[in-house]
What we know:
The chain is mainly alpha-helical and 144 residues long. The protein contains 3 helices and 3 strands. Strands 1-2-3 form a 3-stranded antiparallel sheet, with helices on one face.
Amino acid sequence: MLCNPKTDRARRSAFTLFEILIVVALIALLAGVAVVNADKIFGQSQESIAGIVIKEMKIPLGAYKIAMGGFPTTEEGLQALVTAPGGDSGRWRGPYLEDKKVPVDPWGTALFYRCPGTHNTDRYDIWSAGPDRKEGTADDIGNW
């Protein structure tokens, strides 16, 4: 039996259909695991983003307090950071928010604001209703 080194080497260096199918199956399995866990990964990051948005509101609220002598009332709300509240427009130096609009949480819900706060009686409470978008539930994210 004659051996041809060129054809033997060519046969050994190619992938078989079975090997290619195994690689495709492994990639599909890994992609499936990633898709199933993507909600958990992104859900946790949305909660972190909500916490950051709430913490970042401290700066414009502090600037408002310096100019106006106190935090906005519950009735004035966070809108007082964008438009001057009635009666005190002479001291108001806003808008205190860069985009000139009150931010919302990662789920598209407006932030809640109360001053004086229930949790922070000497200042304000600001919070997101969380992923369930219902205020007063266990998943609320606040500055307390």
